[in-house]
Amino acid sequence: MSSTVPRDPYEVLGVGKAADEREIKKAFRRLARELHPDVNAHDPEAESKFKELAEAYEILSNAESRATYDRYGHDGLRSGGMGPEMGNFGGLGDLFEAFFGQGGMFGGGGRGGPTQGRDAAVGATISLAQAATGTRVQVAPELVIACTHCNGNGAEPGTPIETCERCGGQGVLQAVSRSPFGQVVRHVACDTCGGDGRVPQTPCDECDGQGRVLERVSLDVDVPAGIEDGQRIRLTGRGHAGDHGGPAGDLYVQVRVAEDLRFLRDGVDLIAVLDVPAPLAALGGTRKIETLLNGEQDVVVEAGTQPGEEIKLKGEGMPALRGKRVGDLRVVLNVVIPRRLDAAQRAQLEAFAATITPENLRSDESLVGKLRRLLRG
Prior knowledge:
alpha+beta; four-stranded mixed beta sheet; 10 helices
């Protein structure tokens, strides 16, 4: 487009600001057929016009981005990191295919058998404790599903489906183009029936004759114990609906495990830091630490404990995703040197320091061992 200022998405789609989700979808489907580059090859701006249409739909079909645009305009979308990126579909081709089937409305191939639907993806966030025990989450992906009003055949109930006059029921048309090697003839899907070879006499009012609609679907997903951040759960057959009775694609649920400020995860082990006052480290004693699932547990600090030493609490880590293994809680001891001493404390500490002998400072650990321990910490 010649202008660098984005147009109002309501203007691009030709709908009013009060338009509901159904009106917006219908407007997009109608304009997508008119503006698709495959039917406007003569127009050098066809691709940018179709991209503008797709971006307008991306803004208005999402409640959050639509509300942001209504309040702040395009600047609000940019500043909030919500610029249209075709995030739900992966690109203009994917967006078009989600509405009109694989190969788009004008892609290669003709009338064929059942075609599997596209895969879909959605995210879910759980806590570290939920990852340890397993949980059930609810997700709400936006999926292409068979229209329930027409049972997926694209015709108003009770009305006939007829042979497409444009392609004679073949579902394909011949397209002739010139190349350096002469004329090239290729077969493309019929732009009237979309490659099906048949058209409804009265298109379904709910899906505009497509047989499929885009709808947000609520699903319960079981998350297994031991799952790690970024892993995906595959739900077979719960993705976008297929064409011509083909099976649905798969739905992938990407699980995010929220950060827990108390623990770091290292495979099946958990790591925590326990502050130990220097006098207790010297004398030995017991400190309590919070575990992930079993409340507070005692940690026995041996006399003469050094900074960075590690104590393991067996079985207080994470379960393995497969098998029965359970990790440990590795407690790293942070020996804390007292600060801001008052006069009495300073006097006592000075008196104690005067009694320290080389024997008190002798260590059975070699210099190399000390360096390794410090580097590990």
